[in-house]
Automatic annotation (TrEMBL):
Domain RNA polymerase sigma-70 region, first and last residues per copy: 17-72
CDD domains associated with the record: Sigma70_r4 (cd06171)
InterPro entries: RNA_pol_sigma-70-like, RNA_pol_sigma-70_dom, RNA_pol_sigma70_r2, RNA_pol_sigma70_r4_t2, RNA_pol_sigma_r2, RNA_pol_sigma_r3/r4-like, WH-like_DNA-bd_sf
Family as reported in the entry's similarity comment: Belongs to the sigma-70 factor family. ECF subfamily.
GO molecular function: DNA binding; sigma factor activity
Domain RNA polymerase sigma factor 70 region 4 type, residue spans: 108-158
Superkingdom of the source species: Bacteria
GO BP annotation list: DNA-templated transcription initiation
Coiled coil residues, start to end: none
Annotated protein name in UniProt: RNA polymerase sigma factor
């Protein structure tokens, strides 16, 4: 296969590689980078491609291996070696360990805010929270489904206002 034919085949196959790249990376920019890396590697290694074999499978393999290599490189970059006598390997990523106190305070505030709701709003809201469907709530409470949706909406709105202190917290 000539360089021109190979280049044309690569260009034709690149459209089918895009969804796979997006599936691997889950990010459009990273998928575009992976696509570019794959095409560059394929072109630089075109002499390793055997004419008459499946080009698409070859490109998918290059893409998968490139993704794995990049992922492993990223993980290694976040790992450092402790040079003390223990010689532990420690991941120093963005992981954060919390003691749970913040979550306990938040949960108390949420439960308090729910307890303050009028029963008219609290009952359908809690039923929906527990997994009941709108029509099941309407049947149990003997009210129209539109009323159920409205009351749940109002309950959420009240809770959102009541708990706005947590709006930008993670």
């Amino acid at each position: 296969m000539t360089t021109l034919e190979f280049s044309y085949s690569l260009h034709k196959m690149s459209k089918s590689l895009k969804p796979f790249a997006l599936k691997l990376t889950r990010d459009m920019d990273d998928a575009n980078d992976l696509m570019q890396d794959t095409i560059v590697k394929a072109f630089t290694n075109k002499d390793k491609f055997t004419d008459g074999t499946n080009l698409k499978a070859w490109l998918y393999t290059i893409m998968k291996n490139t993704f794995i290599t990049n992922y492993q490189r990223m993980i290694r970059r976040g790992t450092f070696v402790d040079t003390t006598d223990n010689l532990h390997y420690i991941n120093s990523g963005d992981s954060l360990i919390e003691n749970g106190a913040y979550g306990d305070f938040a949960m108390e505030d949420i439960q308090s805010a729910i307890a303050k709701l009028d029963d008219v709003y609290k009952t359908p809201f809690m039923m929906h929270f527990r997994g009941f469907k709108y029509h099941e709530i309407a049947d149990k409470l003997c009210i129209p489904i539109g009323t159920v949706k409205n009351r749940i909406h109002i309950a959420r709105k009240i809770l959102k206002e009541e708990l706005n202190v947590y709006k930008n917290k993670n």
